[in-house]
UniProtKB/TrEMBL annotation, chain A:
Membrane spanning residue stretches: 25-47, 67-92, 113-142, 148-170, 182-206, 263-283
GO CC entries: plasma membrane
Organism whose genome encodes this protein: Paenibacillus anaericanus
Signal peptide: none
Lineage: Bacteria, Bacillati, Bacillota, Bacilli, Bacillales
Molecular function, one GO term: ABC-type transporter activity
Record-given protein name: ABC transporter permease
Record keywords: Membrane, Transmembrane, Transmembrane helix
From TrEMBL, chain B:
Family from the record: Belongs to the ABC transporter superfamily.
Name of the protein described by the UniProt record: ABC transporter ATP-binding protein
One of the record's GO molecular function terms: ATP hydrolysis activity
SMART domains: AAA (SM00382)
Domain ABC transporter per the UniProt entry, residue ranges: 2-232
Gene3D superfamilies on file: P-loop containing nucleotide triphosphate hydrolases
Amino acid sequence: MNWRRKWINPVLDKEFVLRMRTPRAAYSVLIYVLVMGLLGMGIIYVMTASGMGSRGRLDPTTSRLMFYALSLAQLVLIAFMTPALTAGVISGEREKQTLNMLLTTQQSSATIILSKLAASLSFMTLVILATLPVYSIVFLYGGVSPKQLIFVFLFYLFIMLLLGALGVFFSTIFKKTMVSVIMTYGVGLVIFLATGIAYIFAMGIVQTQMYSSGGPSSYSSYSWIGYILGLNPAGALISILEPSFSDSVFQVNGGNADAPIELWQQFLIVYSVVIVIALWLAIRYIRPVRRNRVKSSPIMDPIE
Amino acid sequence: MIEIRNLTKSYGSFEALKSVNLSIAKGTVFGFVGPNGAGKSTTMSILATLVLPTSGSASVGGFEVTEQPHEVRKRIGYMPDFFGVYDQFKTTEYLHFYGASYGIPRHEREKLIPQLLELVNLNDKKDAYVDSLSRGMKQRLCLARCLVHDPDVLILDEPASGLDPRARIEMREILKELKLMGKTIIISSHILPELAEMVDEIGVIEHGVMVAQGKVADIQDSLRVKRVLHIRVLERSEELAEQLRDEAYVSQVMSDSYGIHAHFSGGDAEQSGLLGRIMESGYQVVSFNEAQTNLEDVFLEITKGGTSGDELA
């Protein structure tokens, strides 16, 4: 029981119990695994029907492609599910009128915020782990190392942490869960889509400039636009699956230099800062905060 | 135990509290009265460390709410006017959660929770889901939650609102028991009669201003709240009513089939003199009573003209 007392604080304990006591938890896992399973089956069907692999059967090369496809599909599902789970953790308590009583207990702001995030992410981790049997189809045909699978799953954890931290932050500063959910999805959309589109536009501009100035340059250099794709989760995930991907992203202007940084490394560094800032702000603003110590200072209240 | 000095709270241009001063001694039951939006809940939220004042200070047990909120939280049990519960919890689990949140070890909670459930008459509901409890039971459970860490001060914002008469009486009995336990209780209510018999002091707040504070009797005296005399005579009731209208200290004389009601602003000696004159005039007096002035009268007297009747309901 000692480890329990040490790691499971009352807020975390409450979140675990309340989340798992509703049938919704079981339905969520079921639907998620069902969707992943159908996607897996669909991918196998497409690959075998289109004549990929050896005579309509899966081989290690096609099973590797299937792994990539599944991993990207899972990334999209996580992007949809994490905000739904986390963007209401504080505002939901506020709407249910339980937050004030929680805030008058001895639990620190950090404990409340981090426990609620940890509980939501634990559930997401359970959902992701529940999809492992779908991945076992891939292992049946080979082509993917367990190490790659572990890296991909660790990357998922990071994505969940990022979206979860943003969800908890918006949930703290906005009074209404609906507003918080919309904001989290909005920022998620920027991270997932806007960065990818920005990269494509930037690549177009750089290549047009390159051809108008007389073709690829002969000297070794890398283009700055690779950094844009380093902000995109799909770009970072592909760079984990295919290590050469980072080099090719940075070489659009014809240079042949190595990438200055792996896309996933840049992704981790940049978004770690975002996670820390989001959580710090959430911890700071869950309880009323005096902006400065002047007598008539305004107070930070949740935004309507 | 509770000290509030020049407390002000503004929301934009709206001033919810205007330089409120309040002092409540240990063991006092303090009734906080005022119409909706007068600033009762804001004051209580500030004491509960949930809202920061714009200026001024508030302390509980010598600890400033803005400087040492952690210490203040240890010493207060706060019951908001509107609150929710975690429906998926059972009653005992609900109290275990809050007990643990106050750092009470499990073995202590195991002993404490049955006692608390006993105090609020929920012993037979210990395994019931919170969701299945009636509103009155939830109010009592919330009160038990306030007591889980044995705080010195209870801040109860409208603890009887929305309760039926029986539940209200049960709540009042529990509060009396808490008073006997020596808790300092600050309790707000718009329903004034329910406070009357249990509070030691009242504070009347209106439009963010504390208009009166002190013992109910002292406030009545200081405001010279008129006594209402109820006089019944065997016959010639109308004639007596006419005669009373000419008496000094008497105003608003009303006469109906139940007798005569007259507002009287004199003291005991003048009242005795009035009875003597009525007797001398040959009226056969059946009864000559002083109607009890309650908190509601005091409140209406203090906030005269500034409060509409429906706000008091």
